[in-house]
Amino acid sequence: MEMSWGILYTLAILLSIAFTTYAISGLTMRTNSDKKKSTFTKIMYLITEFGFVALIPGIGITMSNSSCGEHPFETESTLTAYILWILFAVAYVASRSYKEKFSPVVLSLVSTILVAGWIFCLVTCVHFILFALILVFPGFNLLWLSPYFCLFYLLKEVRSINKMLLSRLPEKEPDLDGKAYYIDLIQRNHIITSGFLTAPFFLMLQSVLYLFGQKPDSLISQFTESCGFLLSYEHSCGCGGDHYLCSIAANGNKDLVKPTRMGLRQNQKILVNRQLLIANAFENWLEDHTPRFHRMIRKTYDSMNIPVNEWSKHKRFANVLYILMKPLEWLFLLWLYLSETKPENRIAKQYLPQKQLNDYLNKTK
Known about the structure:
About 65% of the residues lie in helices and about 5% in strands. With about 375 residues, the chain is mainly α.
């Protein structure tokens, strides 16, 4: 069972690395070099492109926006986040597939939505900045990376529209009157036009959202009324009890996580397994030998506000967390064995009640 979970975790890591690699490559390559790519590479570029724009953001909103614990969007304004994502995703797909067939006016409207989506992604990227450390962990990072990749995909598409419109123009500016003059003006300055149209677009969108029960300022409050992120007013959003990754993981499937005994933390009984004991022993070692560094690590971890409170209620989340934490468990164990004369003693005494801890310490003297 543990081996099969290990294989799934390895596949998740490889998938995450592949998605990130192809996305970066697709964004940085030149258009002319696309003809030299193999069919498989072109398909992978499309999968990652539409995955990061039209699929992963929606999954991220669903999975990260727990009503209990840290959440990047206000729970009452989740509809606003979904609508913004759907609008710029649809506009992006339409532009990528049919922009050659659209008139300049339609293209400017599409571009306006793309610019609005770009602003939404930019604010989300700033909002997520406290979670920057998670971006380096394969498997975890796809949901957090999606707004960063969307930012560049949308910008690249707006520039592509601009380039296409300019290519349609004659070398000399024609002498036009009436509607033809304004259409030509839009075509020549469509990026500026799209930027100006973004403000009334947001105003109209907010009005429609208000009719559907959203707050009159939900475009802003979706960020400010969230909890635990950079733009959040609130950063204390627990639902009772402090939960940490390994302590949640210990509540997973017994055949997978292999619980060993009950432990005591903050006068509350918790289920502990080998992984949790090793992780806490490593933190205990840091606290003993490098207290300043330990305080910095603990402060950084707490400020990240990883939304695990709600996950504690679901064994599937606990199973996933257990697998994701496996590489760190091995690293912590290696460190303890390299730095301690009796590493198992430090591991065994974690989360013991005071009486049992005193008895254990007396026996090991």
